[in-house]
Amino acid sequence: MNFARLMTSLACTALVAAAPLAAHAQADKPFKIGVPTFLSGAAAGPFGIPAKNAAEIFAAAANAGELPAPYDKKGFGGRPIELVVIDEAGGTTKQVSEFRNLVEQQGVDMVVGYTSSGDCLAVAPVAEEMKTLTLFFDCGTPRIFEAADYQYVFRPVATATMDNVGAALYVSEKLPEFKSYAGINQNYAWGQDAWADFEGTLKSAKPDAKLTTSQMPKLGAGQYNAEISAILGSKPDVVHSSFWGGDLEGLILQGAPRGLFKNSVVVLTSGETALHRQAKQIPDGTIIGARGPNGIFAPENTYNTWFRKAYNDKTKEWPSYPSYHMVQSLMAAKLAYEKAQGGDAAKVPTKEDVAKALTGLSFEGPSGKVEMSLGKGHQAVQEMVYGRVKKDADGNIGFVDVVRYAPERVNPPEGVSSADWIKAGLKAAN
Amino acid sequence: MNGLLGAVVDGILYSAWLFIIAVGLTLIYGVMKILNMAHGTFYAVGAYVAVTLLGWWFAQGLPPWGIVPVMILSALVAGLVLGVVVERGILARFAGRDPIVLLLVTYALFLILEDVIKLIWGVDPWIASDPLWVFGQVEFGELIYPTYNLFIVVVAAVVGGLLTWFLQFTAKGKILRAVIHDPEVSRSMGINVGRWNLIAFITGSVLAALGGAFTAPTISVVPGMGVEVVVMMFAVVVIGGLGSIPGTVVGALIVGFVRSFAVHYWPELEVFSVYAVMALVLAIRPQGLFAGVELRKI
Amino acid sequence: MNRTFTFLPPLLGGAALIALIAWFLPSWNFVLAIGLAKGLPVLGLVLLMRGGLVSFGQGLYYALGGYTVGLASQYFGLKDAAALLVISAIGSALVAFVVGLLLSRYRDIFFAMLTLALSMLLYGILVKSTELGGTDGFNVHGITLFGIPLTGADRMNGLLLLIAVCVLGAINLGLFGATAFGRLLAGVRDNEIRVEYLGASADRAVLIAYVLAAVMAALGGAMSGIIVGHIDPEMAFWATSGEFVVIAILAGTGGVLAPFVAAVVLEVVRSFAYQYAPNTWQLVLGLIILALILFLPQGLSGLVRRGPRAVNAGEKS
């Protein structure tokens, strides 16, 4: 009895919820974009919410036709943008399930999202199977386009390979006197890959440097006293960390009073997200990366000027790299859609046309030039930037020794996997 | 030699932290036979309240010696509110149900509270790290620690001491031990078991929040920070023997030292270490190290 | 009809109903499949719970099943679902037998915690195994059944196979419940010492139930790997095992159908919460679980037995 009632009410809820959506879809054909990004858990603060903010800012500005040219057409080729934001938390099975729901129940035209590499890997074949244009905006693993070919799946941001190759090149070139190094990375694919790439590059770039200790605490551990002691005790010249979010902030909070940043030069490959909140604790000389020319390292151009202002107007904060990644991905999508229209604003291009327009696309965004030159035109490369913190008299963070590595210096050539390329000493194996 | 000293100091610091939170979990289990899945979330709430009050305290420019009372106050506020609302509002409605159902109730609570935290404090990290700096530093060999880190050891010792004194040397403590031993008989002797349930639950919640409050300055307080904590605490109380306070001390020391030595000497084994020790202890002593042999009822 | 088989008509009816729903609402196909794949480990868990035992480590076998499918198809080119399922079942049964020899002496919270520790050990190993993709896991491609494709546009086939596996699993456990060992479990829960006085071995009943539960979990994990097309260490994480326990309690220990109903209902509810309350889906889910416990004290399986009925020996009513 009760159960029947429960099912009935569930079914009613489903109908009520689905009805307005169906009606709406026929009205004036908005372009619906599914945006899966972290809304709960530790990744929400540093990644998910900034990305969601950026998506909303982009959608509002595009719908009003206020973006700088060539993005100044309203919406997507005249169609207003509608965002469907969902939570990326819950694991890969849940995300595959929710991806299908986005496409089949919410009827989105495109999906732009995913911060977790595991989610990207799992979603990619499903997106291909469902012939749904899918743009990964933030995940780092290079395996996606190295292990398989896709027609509908793209990543208009660079992989994490260049973060750690760039970091290794930077310390080898800027700190010629360094003799030993240590690492502290989270014990999951992101941290493991980051460390492997950094260590692998150093083996060819600085073969005489010695590894002292590699610490791999688990993701979200929060307390790193023992790890910090072990690193301090081993006295490395350089410490590498790909920590992000709360873990990164915890490492800085606990490491700074214990002299971690004084005794060694610390490289924080994703340090930019913690920069403004923790300006006080990050001492001069710390090497900071922003996963590309984003945020603090973004070039001066009209897109960046627009984005910084729009983001600051909405949130009273300055945008960090996840929000750059999001805007950059949406710009790529908009540009490809309008390119596929071929100048006819009334035309609704097919997904295949848009995919073709995205393949090998080269465009300019808030972080400068982006070229979709890897993975048969589905994977973007950008330049990589590192700099060392130098605070002014008021404690405001600035950077010195900023080095910009050209894309081909920190990314493998087409057809070579990151791992093989690093193993071969950053030379194409042939 | 320095490495060994560091490993010992880190082991003690970590054990103290584990003990404060785990002893709350074991107290609640001992009295109510509920394994509280939301315990880690109580810890997180304590941290959030503390970081909020500390931020206010330092923003007013009030003297740093006041932070210890501020943190204790945070823990009391968080623990009392959570304890009363959860025990009276929810758990009491499920009294007498199968322990496994109560476990599920606390799991539902865990889900609800995770979102409530988000609704109150948002998803951005909260940081109040001044206490780490204002008390200066101490040196052990070559290693430097903020003096503040030692506070947690003092707190653990005080908590352990007070609990032991209460349970072993006061009349009320004797009553509580009777309730732990056999609630049914206690009830028939005229003890208000329901009230002791409430007291135990509040005390356990305050302890979790106390752990959170004293940890807050050293970490970035973020959503989901309690999730990892609760399984670690399960390991501690199970190794020591559920419901036993001396057992919790030993469990905390074992887990704390195993982890610290793993980090210092075999970092690649750190992930396994705690669970391997837990499996090993259970394989040798199924009841945990300190729990008495349970009488089987015929 | 023999009393042993009274569960058959609703089971087959339910299977047909699910297949029909999936046929008419293809967009719900995947959610149903995930629910059913989770229902299998829950089915095994419910069996253990009849003996008063709660395993917090069924994720161990869920992951074993998934990784068996992944590794066998990736490294040995074995792409046939039937063979993969059989290998998963046998492999996990062997592991469960060895582990069960130790575990069957444990009860209550200690059983729960030891199972949890063991599954977290596997999790630790999988996380460290970078050649298997570490925490990112890896994709499973192109599994077929005797040449029939199961995924992609043909995922209805996958769902039908899953339904068949579920029905077989349910029949298997339904029959086991009627055997001497199956009936002993209730005795183990209520009073183990009396069971031993009767000359039966409580430990052996627990061991058999544990192995059966492990096989169910492995089949669920294997089917999940085939249908989702991706496996990762999360399958062995304590939260996965915890979710199975949650579903099992919602299902109640009453029947072989309830675990699947509970798993599917929870999956559907979660899907709705995700889509319509993306910022507070945990809150919604938590409240629904609380409401279900409050209003359905016997779990979902309690719903169908409101009427007068005989109380089985050893079952608390």
Q: Main interface pair?
A: A-C, 44 and 46 residues
Total of domains of chain B: 1
CA radius of gyration of chain C: 19 Å
Give the H and E element order of chain C.
HHHHHEEEHHHHEHHH
- Class of secondary structure makeup of chain C: mainly alpha
| Helix percentage range of chain B | over 70%
Estimated share of beta-strand residues of chain C: under 5%
Kindly state the percentage of residues in helix of chain C.
55-70%
Q: List unreliable stretches of 5+ residues of chain B.
A: none
Rounded to an integer in angstroms, the radius of gyration calculated over CA atoms of chain B is: 19 Å
The assigned CATH architecture of chain B is Orthogonal Bundle
CATH fold description of chain B: ABC transporter involved in vitamin B12 uptake, BtuC
| Major sheet details of chain C | 2 strands, antiparallel
- From N to C, what is the helix and strand string of chain B? HHHHHEEHHHHHHH
Helix/strand/pairing category of chain B: mainly alpha
Domain module count of chain C:
1
Q: Largest sheet of chain B, order of strands side by side? A: 1-2
How many helices of chain C in DSSP terms?
A: 12
Task: List low-confidence stretches of chain C.
Answer: 306-317
Membrane topology (chain C): Multi-pass membrane protein
Protein name (chain C): Branched-chain amino acid ABC transporter permease
Subcellular location (chain C): Cell membrane
Pfam families (chain C): BPD_transp_2
Describe the model.
The complex is a heterotrimer of chains A (430), B (298) and C (317). In chain A, 43% of the residues lie in helices and 18% in strands. Chain A has 430 residues and is an alpha/beta fold. In chain A, the strands form three sheets. In chain A, strands 7-6-8-9-10-14-15 form a seven-stranded mixed sheet, sandwiched between helices. Chain A is globular. The N terminus of chain A is likely disordered. Chain B has 298 residues and is mostly helical. Chain B has one domain: ABC transporter involved in vitamin B12 uptake, BtuC, CATH 1.10.3470. Helices cover 73% and strands 3% of the residues of chain B. Chain B has a two-stranded antiparallel ribbon with strand order 1-2. Chain C has one domain. The radius of gyration of chain C is 19 Å and the shape is globular. Chain C starts with 7 loop residues before the first helix and ends in a 22-residue tail after the last helix. Chains A and B meet through helix 2, strand 7, helix 8 and helix 9 of A and helix 1, helix 4, strand 2, helix 10 and helix 11 of B. Chain C: It is found in: Cell membrane. Chain C: Its main location: membrane. Chain C: This is Branched-chain amino acid ABC transporter permease.
